[in-house]
């Protein structure tokens, strides 16, 4: 696979994810239930987020700040992180087509088929004003909830946390996404550990799509462990802080293509302002 075709495939994959996401927004579950099977496209492939490949079961008792975004009919489509009692940091590409009143934030529910925890309503969606597409950066969004949740919050990395972005730093990724590219979403919360990848390694795979000022990569050189579809918007955690928001990748868990995350410390000012608003 040469770099050119890889980039092309990445763009096409993203365009498809965007298109399918808009269909979902417009038609809701009817698309997943009826049109996708007819078209031969799995619901997981239509999912704009990523889920965890190579992960193991985890509990929101241990990771209380990890949440998922769902439609009002209960369809989980992205992850997020509780960063204040009534604020969730997620990916802009998760919320760009959303209307606040049609988004649920689910906290404290390991099993999507259960009714454990809390489903809060969203009253306001902030999307970074410079966001246009995942490969240009700015893939961050802050949701305001209709209530204060009781779950613990996770601190957001700042400029003072530069050390957490050093290649080799151990991170935790979490989500309810697919367990392989094009696979089925996970019923349960999954977690995995992956090291932060150096800028040169990430650029070697993604070329100019990887923008070190705006992004950070994490993954193993040989692949096998990664976020995947449906995990988007969820946390990349190191040193007890949120250092990244799951953003994009070429497939999932492939050698030479680590997962790409929004570099949270780059958006410190904007995020801080949103948390205060
Ligand atoms: C996605 O579709 C996605 N392997 C998120 C993360 C990754 C791939 C895809 C990283 O939202």
Automatic annotation (TrEMBL):
<keyword id="KW-0720">Serine protease</keyword>
<dbReference type="GO" id="GO:0005576">
    <property type="term" value="C:extracellular region"/>
</dbReference>
<dbReference type="InterPro" id="IPR009003">
    <property type="entry name" value="Peptidase_S1_PA"/>
</dbReference>
<dbReference type="GO" id="GO:0006508">
    <property type="term" value="P:proteolysis"/>
</dbReference>
<feature type="domain" description="Peptidase S1">
    <location>
        <begin position="52"/>
        <end position="276"/>
    </location>
</feature>
<dbReference type="InterPro" id="IPR018114">
    <property type="entry name" value="TRYPSIN_HIS"/>
</dbReference>
<dbReference type="Pfam" id="PF00089">
    <property type="entry name" value="Trypsin"/>
</dbReference>
<dbReference type="InterPro" id="IPR033116">
    <property type="entry name" value="TRYPSIN_SER"/>
</dbReference>
<dbReference type="InterPro" id="IPR043504">
    <property type="entry name" value="Peptidase_S1_PA_chymotrypsin"/>
</dbReference>
<keyword id="KW-0645">Protease</keyword>
<keyword id="KW-0964">Secreted</keyword>
<keyword id="KW-1015">Disulfide bond</keyword>
<comment type="similarity">
    <text>Belongs to the peptidase S1 family.</text>
</comment>
<dbReference type="InterPro" id="IPR050430">
    <property type="entry name" value="Peptidase_S1"/>
</dbReference>
<dbReference type="InterPro" id="IPR001254">
    <property type="entry name" value="Trypsin_dom"/>
</dbReference>
<dbReference type="GO" id="GO:0004252">
    <property type="term" value="F:serine-type endopeptidase activity"/>
</dbReference>
<dbReference type="InterPro" id="IPR001314">
    <property type="entry name" value="Peptidase_S1A"/>
</dbReference>
<keyword id="KW-0378">Hydrolase</keyword>
<protein>
    <submittedName>
        <fullName>Secreted trypsin-like serine protease</fullName>
    </submittedName>
</protein>
<dbReference type="GO" id="GO:0051604">
    <property type="term" value="P:protein maturation"/>
</dbReference>
